[in-house]
Amino acid sequence: MAKESRPEKLRTLRGAFASPASGEPAFTQTAITGGWREDEGLENLLPGLPTAGAIDTLKDALVRFLDEGGQPTVREEAGDRAMQLDAATFYEFRIVADGVRLYVKVLLESDEEPPEVKVISVKRWDR
Q1: What is the domain range of residue 67?
Q2: Beta carbons of 57 and 98 less than 8 angstroms apart
Q3: Nearest-angstrom CA–CA distance, 122 and 98
Q4: Which of 54, 56, 84, 110 has the most crowded Cβ, counting Cβ within 10 A?
């Protein structure tokens, strides 16, 4: 696959978040439940909504953010051969969903066909 430009990557992210399919994008278990942390995860941060409703609310807020010209922070991580970690590009969104300020970390694997979008974590955005 040819290397995507930043606008193309943002369109890919928007398309994944706008998709009505439940599998687009993927969510880690930690992004949904917060794992052992009560101050992270959609189920903890948007407790008035069922899980599917919280996911849809988050996806809608991300689409709105991108449609309004919002720019996520892009963080490139080089990887580590010794730890067997591949290089990765993360997109960090600071949005408001259902009145809650959220920090959302998203991985875009654009080398895949179709590109894979995965929500890695959802935390409270306190700043």
Answers
A1: 6-123
A2: yes
A3: 14
A4: 54
Structure tokens at 41: 């995860």
Does residue 101 belong to any structural domain of this protein? yes
Count of domains in the chain? 1
**Sheet architecture: strand order including 100-109:** 26-27, 116-124, 100-109, 88-97, 73-77
With respect to residue 1, please indicate whether it lies within any of the assigned structural domains. no
Amino acid at 63: V
pLDDT in tens, the chain (127 residues): 445 678 889 999 999 999 876 557 999 999 999 999 999 999 999 999 999 999 999 999 999 999 999 999 999 877 666 655 566 889 999 999 999 999 999 999 877 777 889 999 999 998 6
Mention every residue, 6+ apart, whose C-beta is less than 8 A from residue 83: none
